[in-house]
Design a protein that fits this description.
The complex is a heterodimer. By secondary structure, chain A is mainly alpha-helical. Helices cover 75% and strands 1% of the residues of chain A. Chain A is built from 14 helices and two strands. The longest helix of chain A is centred in the first third of the chain and has 38 residues, at 3-40. The radius of gyration of chain A is 26 Å and the shape is globular. Chain B has a domain at 65-247: MetI-like (MetI-like fold, Orthogonal Bundle), CATH 1.10.3720.10. Classes of the chains: A mainly alpha, B mainly alpha. Chains A and B meet through helix 1, helix 4, helix 5, helix 6 and helix 7 of A and helix 1, helix 2, helix 4, helix 5 and helix 6 of B.
Chain lengths: 310, 295
């Protein structure tokens, strides 16, 4: 009696070993690409030495962090990262939602499709190309703004790439231009999914367009809005490296308003070769970022578990 | 009532038209700049209505097309290999996770999902790929780090397999004596073309647009992808006039129409995407929206 189940079990294992074998390349890849670096964050507590390697270098405790937080940079990059993200999340939500509602109102399907593809176009382009587009606008001698727009307004030409005070506006505009289209498509899909009967009933009751938007459209897509916003809040400690590096052309004079945690880590590692400082900043980012993801998810789950991510 | 309605339609359409124009104008400026006469740019800057047109920028690029073709070649190679390998790894990983009878599938799903919550960051990743593996200045550096850019695709495929492939289909294949792998290749994959195409499209765009891995792992300009070439020229215009580019030219460096050539390079870089966009647009939008639904 007992031998048969055992034999079955062996057969079962053999069966699943095929499935496991299929998973193996992916698992190995994730171990190397994700988990190894995750354990590799210990270098933030080490005096990294290339000849000794990640795990052989000497421990120095929190020294790298002490250095990092003694600099003014730590506060600056934290402030920049969070402020930009807060503005981005808010404006993206308002604009993408607004445009999605407008798109849904367009009666001609052909026009609606056309607007949608045009609005989504910037999302497809790499940040390097965006850097070119912005350069064509803002270049000191040859830029469109300095040569055409400012003279029309009677304003002196501005050296955009050396005046940091303009960049919060420029980067915000570029970010919205590039990524609002994506959110817009998502909100539009959610709006299209709303049962038309709600609107028919509302129209019979004499509700205006604005009342319909306020009392039907927005409340019904709140779950999607929550998830999308939550995803962004969870990543509030991260930023789009390309936006902050390529678009300002890595200009040193602009760093007080364009330096964020990601660009700081990159420059500390690749330009200065300071593994200690950059790994400390990187771990700071990973750790706080992780806590924020858990926290934002926890809050949403408490309010409405259906909207939580996990 | 009728007039009020059409005023609303006019209002909506005009606003959307303005937004659409705002989205597309920079591309038009880029294109016009690339066919503007260099002297007219020096005098009036980049303009939508230039004084004089000229194809000299493209002629210049054509003279020294080798570097551009090379970069194109590298981009195409990494995009094709990267996307194919990525699809293989992703689907092979997602299928067992989708099987309810797979032992420990909860654990492995979490193992994959967890990478979406936290990552080691740039420094340890860089050290793993340069110290542990010697990927610096190899094509592998342009392909490997992007293979599972987003664990989300694994979750997406897992959900697709679990919900769209009926379990009896898999059962009956097994009854007929097909092994797991055979079932996967002959039954599951052909039924999963929509999700494979979606993830494939996103990976293609990812590899085509990627400049970051090239920027950190590749210093040898022979291995520059299109985006890396563009990146270097943007950040350092000297790179355009240096070495290979001006090498076999009879012009002196001063004669190179740098302002227009720069823009022409960018146009050469986005043309393929702009041409392909109308064909994959519908698919792309669909992919974005399933991505927003819980995986």
């Amino acid at each position: 009696m007992t031998t048969i189940p055992a034999g079955k079990r062996i057969g079962k294992y053999r069966k699943y070993s095929a499935l496991f074998l299929m998973m193996l390349p992916g698992i190995l890849y994730i171990v190397i690409n994700n988990y190894l670096p995750m354990f590799g964050v210990v270098i933030a507590f080490k005096d990294f030495n290339y000849s000794k390697g990640i795990f052989g270098s000497d421990w120095i405790g929190f020294e790298n962090f002490e250095y990092l937080f003694k600099t003014e940079d730590a506060l600056l990059i934290t402030r920049n990262t969070i402020l930009y993200n807060v503005v981005f999340i808010f404006l993206n939500l308002v604009i993408a939602l607004g445009v999605a509602i407008l798109l849904n109102e367009v009666k001609k399907r052909f026009l609606s499709q056309l607007y949608q593809s045009v609005i989504l176009l910037p999302y497809l382009i790499s940040m390097v190309i965006v850097g070119y587009l912005v350069f064509a606008m803002l270049s000191l001698e040859t830029g469109f703004v300095n040569n055409t727009i400012l003279p029309m307004l009677g304003i002196q030409e501005i050296s955009w790439y050396s005046e940091s005070k303009y960049w919060p506006y420029i980067l915000t505009l570029v970010h919205i231009w590039k990524s609002a289209g994506y959110l817009c498509v998502i909100y539009l899909a959610a709006i299209i999914g709303i049962d038309p009967e709600y609107y028919e009933a509302a129209t019979i009751d004499g509700a205006s367009k604005w009342q319909q938007i306020k009392s039907i459209t927005i409340p019904l897509i709140i779950p999607v809005i929550t998830v999308m916003t939550l995803l962004q809040i969870g990543r509030i400690f991260y930023s789009d490296f390309g936006l902050f590096y390529q678009v300002p052309l890595n200009a040193g004079a602009l760093q007080s308003t364009t330096n964020v945690i990601d660009t700081y880590v990159y420059r500390a590692l690749m330009t200065l070769g300071d593994v200690g400082m950059s790994s400390a900043a990187g771990l700071y980012q990973s750790f706080v970022g992780f806590v924020l993801v858990l926290l934002s998810n926890y809050i949403v789950r408490k309010k409405n578990s259906d909207n939580a991510l996990f | 009532m009728k007039t009020k309605y059409s005023i609303w339609q006019w209002f909506v359409n005009i606003i959307l038209l303005v937004i659409g124009v705002f989205c597309i104008l920079p591309f038009i400026l880029l294109f016009i700049s690339s066919v503007t006469d260099e002297q007219s740019i020096v005098r009036n800057g980049y303009s939508f209505f230039p004084e004089a047109y000229s194809l000299s920028a493209y002629r210049y690029l054509w003279h020294d097309a080798e570097r551009i073709f090379r970069a194109y070649g590298i981009t195409i190679v990494i995009t094709v290999i990267g996307t194919v390998v990525s699809l293989i790894i992703t689907s092979l990983l997602a299928y067992p996770l989708s099987r309810k009878d797979m032992p420990m599938n909860k654990f492995w799903s979490f193992f994959v999902f967890f990478t979406m919550l936290i990552n080691g960051g740039l420094v340890p990743t860089y050290l793993v790929y340069t110290q542990l593996f010697d990927f610096k200045n190899t094509l592998l550096a342009l392909i490997v780090p992007g293979l599972l850019t987003n664990a989300f695709y694994v979750m997406l495929m897992r959900t697709f397999f679990a919900t769209s492939i009926p379990a009896p289909v898999i059962e009956s294949a097994k009854m007929d004596g097909a092994g797991e792998f055979k079932t996967f290749v002959q039954i599951v994959l052909p039924l999963s073309l929509p999700i494979l195409a979606t993830v494939g499209l996103f990976q293609t765009i990812h590899y085509w647009n990627d400049w970051f891995n090239g920027m950190i792992y590749v210093t040898d300009s022979k291995l520059f992808s299109l985006q890396n070439l563009l990146n270097r020229i943007l950040l350092d215009i000297q790179f355009l006039t240096s070495s290979n580019f001006a090498g076999n030219q009879s012009d002196s460096v001063a004669n190179i129409p740098t302002e227009t050539v720069r823009m022409a390079m960018a146009v050469v870089g986005i043309i393929p995407i702009l041409i392909a966009y109308p064909f994959f647009q519908k698919f792309f939008v669909k992919g974005l929206t399933i991505g927003a639904v819980k995986g």
